[in-house]
Amino acid sequence: MPATAGTPRARALSAALREARLTNGMGSRELARHLELSHTQISHWENGHRVPNVENVAMILTALRISPRERERILDLARNVAEPNWLTVGMNGIPQQLAGVVECERSASSIVEWSPMVIPGLLQTSDYTRAIKEAAGLPQTDVELRVMLNVSRREVLTRRSPVSFHALIGEAGLYEPIGPDGVVLDQLRHLAEMAKRPNVLVQLMPQGIGWHPGWAGPFVVYEFLDASPVVHFEHHSSGAFIPTEHDVAEYRKAVERLREIAIDEAESVARIEKAISKWEEE
């Protein structure tokens, strides 16, 4: 199966190659001269416009003198880059997929996320992210790396041409006591501020409305101008990117249903303000 540019795995591969070169401190033109390739070719690979084969990836990693562990991680991306679905099982798989998530966020034209119990990552404060990762039992070094990454991820909502983000959030999540005192309060204040941005739409899903498609679990739908849409979901120790046309269509239907039964934008903001008042009283 030929590799397709624009898929989450291909985006993760291009990001990994770009990061490996930058970490090495080598310019793209210098790398191109070293490999006797054109600068344009390197640029296409790093920007995700084209997908290098395994041999080219190995050649680049050798030139950059990448560590054996990192070399194997990137080669694994290259070997499986043509696979349409991307499923990982076990906590070790999630960081690699997280690279795909970051690249999808950076290149998406619009994002819809359904998050039944927590504030979506793009809308999280650093303290809120830290509290969640610490509660998950991650090593402190990994926790801080995730926090730093989340800070950089949020830039897609505030850059000059920001992505359109529609957050569908379970209302119950506003009242979950996450982290030390003040963490949830600061998080809700931040959520209320972000909801004022023209590119951010926040809708709350109330409790007690019976079954709806969101009961199946959290998910994200990424739409692109230059590629087919893709769905991503992540659970405790596994995650998957699903680009299959039929599956994406079903998740789009789920989004439409959730939009219909969720509280409208104005009332959602009012309920966030109500939750803020509740936390201020405690």
The major sheet is characterized as: 7 strands, mixed
CATH topology of the largest domain: Endonuclease, Chain A
The CATH class of the largest domain: Alpha Beta
Rg, please?
20 Å
Q: Sketch the topology as an H/E string, one letter per element.
A: HHHHHEHEHHEHEEEEHH
**Number of distinct helices:** 11
Biggest sheet: strand arrangement:
1-7-6-5-2-3-4
Instruction: Give the strand content.
Output: 5-15%
Strand elements, count: 7
* Domain unit count: 2
User: If you average the pLDDT, what whole number results?
Assistant: 89
Q: Percent of residues in helical segments?
A: 40-55%
Shape: globular
GO molecular function: DNA binding
InterPro entries: Cro/C1-type_HTH, DUF5753, Lambda_DNA-bd_dom_sf
Organism: Saccharopolyspora antimicrobica
Protein name: Helix-turn-helix domain-containing protein
Strand and helix layout:
Blueprint: H1 8-24, H2 28-35, H3 39-47, H4 54-63, H5 68-79, E1 86-89, H6 93-107, E2 110-115, H7 126-135, H8 140-153, E3 164-170, H9 183-194, E4 200-205, E5 219-223, E6 230-234, E7 238-242, H10 245-261, H11 265-281
Parallel strand pairs: 2-3, 3-4
Antiparallel strand pairs: 1-7, 2-5, 5-6, 6-7
Helix pairs in contact: 1-6, 2-3, 4-5, 7-8, 9-11
